[in-house]
Amino acid sequence: MADVRIEGISKYFGDFGAVKEVSTVFEEGTVTVLLGPSGCGKTTLMRMIVGLETPTTGSVMIGDTDVTRVPTNKRQIGMVFQYPVIYRGTTVARNLELPLIAAKMDSSARKKRIDEMAEIIGLTDVLETNVDRLDNAGRQKVAVAREVARQPEVLLFDEPITNVDLTSKLELKRSLKQLFTELRQTIIYVTHDQTEAMSLADKIALMNTGRIVQLDAPRVVYDRPDDVFAGWFLGSPGMNFLRTGFVVEGSSLHSPLLASPISVGAEAQHATTMGIRPEQLTASLEEQPDHVRAEIVDKAITIGGRMLLGVKVQDLEIKAVVEHDIGKNASSSIWIKLPRENLHLFDAHDRKIEAGLQSVG
Amino acid sequence: MTSPIHDSPVVLPEENAPSKRNDKERRLTISGVIAWIVALIFFAPIFWIFLAALKTDNTILAYPPKFIFTPTLENFAALITKPNVGLYFFNSVFLSVGSVAIAIVVSYLAAYSFSRFKPAGTDFLMFLLLSTRFVPAAAFVIPFFQLFGILNFKDSYVGLLIFYVMFSVPFSVWILKGFIDGVSQRFDETGLVNGASRAHVIFKVVLPQVKPGLVAAFVFNIIFVWNEFLFNFQLGGRNTSTIPVALFTSLYDGGATNWPYVASLGTAYVLPLAILIFFFQKYLLVGMTFGTVRGEV
């Protein structure tokens, strides 16, 4: 087991920069999820770590070894791809065994390792089944178990559950979670699915246009987005952003969305955007202190028994996720409050401004 | 009031089906009959050679042709005792199997490189490769004759092997590239990640998945080389003649065409290939479409 350090790594395909000057550390024994929209460079970054792409600039270190010029087959990395890659026409056990034979492990040790792996990932019952008879989720489990059984220094997963049908997805996700917990391996996991990232990650490395924009624990990325992109990408729906409709005067922030001005730090002067997550505002059917009246302009059911509303205060329209009862019983308006600790301010470069907002409450 | 749905004429599929089925059956029968007629016309010369091989010298050219006669294997017995016939067979088998086998190894590696590493100008190179087969063979005869003279390759196995390998590579690369493209690169990558060498990936991971392509390329090119006449005639000689050339050069015997010899050698020449094609015919379609139509292989 080892950590993975990447230093100033870039990959250009012609003029197109897929990954730009990324430096970061994927800590030992940690599940780091590379999360980002399609085409943000997360897969390219992963392929450079495993050696399937050569970086244009920069270096990759696994532990204390610089592996930038080391061929893939000498890197001691395991990788699971989006489509399950298995050795067809043979049994599950044989699939797990082949790399171990290549690694010259003796037969009793192989047997023991295979049984352990099958136990952890839930393949014990199908060990002697031909892999062709398994569904995609089963095959992907085989691919995962095969990579893990080799006990590489680092394990990479490239969207391993994207191509699995919905019912098996949850089960596979649960198996992976259990596996990750038991292994305590250095794992880098690529996905564009935020719920997958939130449930599997120890840390999320959020990527956008070839750069890592934030690397933090999932809750931190969600609660304290470093920039507008992080606020928008995480959450469903993403954060509300207001480019107008608020002013900072001295140490107070005024807005029609706030019943009374709130105190902010001096840095708030530079704020050009105010953000609030739709699910983090409070709503009520009756008039409450500190709440403002908002007109309902749109109603839609969301998952999880909560309701997504479009509400409007003066000419400021925002999304609000409210308790189902409130959404259902509200006629034309509700009362909302934007809690101070859930407000976010961003500067002209879309970067977070602390302004002392989250420190209180 | 009736709904518009009831007003509109309803076509019941059950009522209509039998006549449609009859139509279809009739069409199938007619096309079947036509196919048989065409097949018989094409097969007639081969049938004539087969029959002739079993007739005696004076019944072969009898007019009207005799369809009822006592078959004899005399001609084949005579064929075996003829000088050089064994050599012609050896040459045909050795040159076709040998050159196609070499060509397939070369083509597989080339196709793998084109498919996976995509060197600059891959499309153009692929076109160039195939373009050598667009040009009529007759245009190459003189240059090759001179080239083989300079290289001292005339009437040598090495020279003819090289020529037939060159002859077989373009189609094989095309067929095999189609097949290798169909194997996801993730297989190669998983192999490499699992610690395998590139050679292991090429021969143990990808090769087993393109076996039908290898068979198709083999069968397709064997037919070409087995039937090749012009270049063997020009570049070969006494020691390296294949059966097609032998059929032509030893046609005359004692001032007349030796029909029993031609018929028996012709039959013996056609049979191995006919058997091969019978068993591997589904791969022919693959070959003729460069691996784009794979059907059941």
CATH architectural category of the largest domain in chain A: 3-Layer(aba) Sandwich
Strand order of the largest sheet of chain B: 1-2
Mean of pLDDT of chain B: 87
CATH names the topology of the largest domain in chain A as Rossmann fold
In the predicted model, the low-confidence regions of chain B spanning at least 5 consecutive residues are 1-8
Tally of contiguous helical segments of chain B: 14
Q: If you compute it from the alpha carbons, what radius of gyration of chain A comes out, rounded to the nearest whole angstrom?
A: 24 Å
Describe the sheet with the most strands of chain A: 6 strands, mixed
Count structural domains of chain A. Answer: 2
Let me know the number of strands of chain A: 22
Strand content of chain B: under 5%
CATH superfamily of the largest domain in chain A: P-loop containing nucleotide triphosphate hydrolases
Please explain how this structure is put together.
The complex is a heterodimer of chains A (361) and B (297). Chain A has 361 residues and is α+β, with helices and mostly antiparallel strands. Chain A has two domains: 4-231, Rossmann fold (3-Layer(aba) Sandwich); 237-353, OB fold (Dihydrolipoamide Acetyltransferase, E2P). Helix content of chain A is 25%, strand content 32%. Chain A is built from nine helices and 22 strands. Chain A has helices at residues 42-50, 92-102, 107-121, 136-149, 166-183, 194-200, 218-223, 228-233, 324-329, and strands spanning 4-13, 16-26, 31-35, 57-62, 65-66, 77-80, 154-158, 186-191, 203-208, 211-216, 240-242, 247-249, 252-254, 262-263, 273-276, 282-284, 292-301, 306-313, 316-323, 333-337, 343-346, 352-353. Chain A has a six-stranded mixed sheet with strand order 6-7-8-3-9-10, with helices on both faces. A five-stranded antiparallel sheet of chain A has the order 16-20-17-18-19. A four-stranded antiparallel sheet of chain A has the order 2-1-4-5, with helices on one face. In chain A, helix 5 links the parallel strand 7 (154-158) and strand 8 (186-191). Chain A is elongated, with a radius of gyration of 24 Å. The two termini of chain A are 40 Å apart. Chain B is mostly helical and 297 residues long. Chain B has two domains: 4-53; 83-288, MetI-like fold, CATH 1.10.3720.10. Helices cover 73% and strands 1% of the residues of chain B. Chain B has 14 helices and two strands, in the order H-H-H-H-H-H-H-H-H-H-H-H-H-E-E-H. In chain B, strands 1-2 form a two-stranded antiparallel ribbon. In chain B, a hairpin with a 2-residue loop joins strand 1 and strand 2. In chain B, helix 5 (85-116) packs parallel to helix 8. Mean pLDDT of chain B is 87; it is low at 1-8. Classes of the chains: A alpha+beta (361), B mainly alpha (297). Chain A binds chain B through residues 50-52, 71-75, 77-79, 81-83, 85, 99, 102-103, 143, 146-147, 150, and chain B through 184, 186-187, 189-190, 192-197.
